[in-house]
Amino acid sequence: MTISLHVQPRSRRNALVVSPQGALKAAVTAPPEDGRANDAVVALLAARFQMPKSAIAVKHGTTARDKVLLLAGEPQAIAVRIVDWMRGERVRGNG
Length: 95
Fold this sequence. Notes:
Layout: E1 2-8, E2 15-18, E3 24-27, H1 36-49, E4 56-60, E5 66-71, H2 75-92
Parallel strand pairs: 1-3
Antiparallel strand pairs: 1-5, 2-3, 4-5
């Protein structure tokens, strides 16, 4: 399964949010140097979607802010995790 998201490196805090249009946006404190921001995005998604970091890889956009990530595993199970996370964000008012 692939997901698209926009990344903001050198942010004040790490955060994953859903825009009002439904797009994923990731803010990471890591700088966009030597793949550190990409690593931080992978770690953030792994934590939020309760997946191992090894199951997430940047497929396109390694040096761009707009990225496509590949999430390994059963697509339906991954979709359930993402939807559960999105529901939790709406309850908390963070997306």
